[in-house]
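Morning. Coffee machine broken again, so started the prediction first thing and wrote up yesterday's gels while waiting. Chain of 207 residues, entered below exactly as on the submission form.
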Amino acid sequence: MAVQFVVLFRCCTNLRKELEKCKHPNSRKTKALSKKARRQNNKHKQRLGHAIKSNIMGEKLTWFLEHIEEGRKHPLTPVEFEELIELYLKRFDEELEQIALKQSISKNRANQHKAREDVIKITLEKEINEYKAGGMELLNLCDPLKFKSLMDWDGSAINVQHLKLDLVSHNMLQRLKKEYETAKGATPANEVTPSTSQQSEEVMETS
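Came back before lunch.
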């Protein structure tokens, strides 16, 4: 990120020097340089936007990686994945409690850490809405290949772009849970549990 800022600064500095040499503001050269400056500025803004997005996604993936047992080889079950996402959405609970405690101690501290509190609440509201609606951008950790890609990830924000992300939603996980239960030969509690051989036949049929 710092390197990109340096490159942007140098490019803008060089173009500014060239523009200062132009005596006529409406000359073809001046207009051409101005157009080039705007194009480069937009290009660098886009690159910086991608870099910021990669850093945010990198922090999210790091959190999930740190909350999966080290050395695990098999993907998460839909239930495990759902529980992990719910835990992720509560990751700021302790910090919010501390902020509320500090603000309650004194009226003079009512606005202490207010900016941080607002950022957390906006972030959580966005993530919860995404999860309940179209889906939050994340790896589907129920998928063996996606799970392995996370476990093999080196933690670099630069390499986030090489990961094939999914839109993971609450509805998607409910569907995966049903599929998982069907594949395991699960039956309702009020029905007689079939024999082991029958379960094996059902699993073979569903697969």
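Residues 104 and 198 are 61 Å apart (CA to CA). Going to sketch it on the whiteboard this afternoon.
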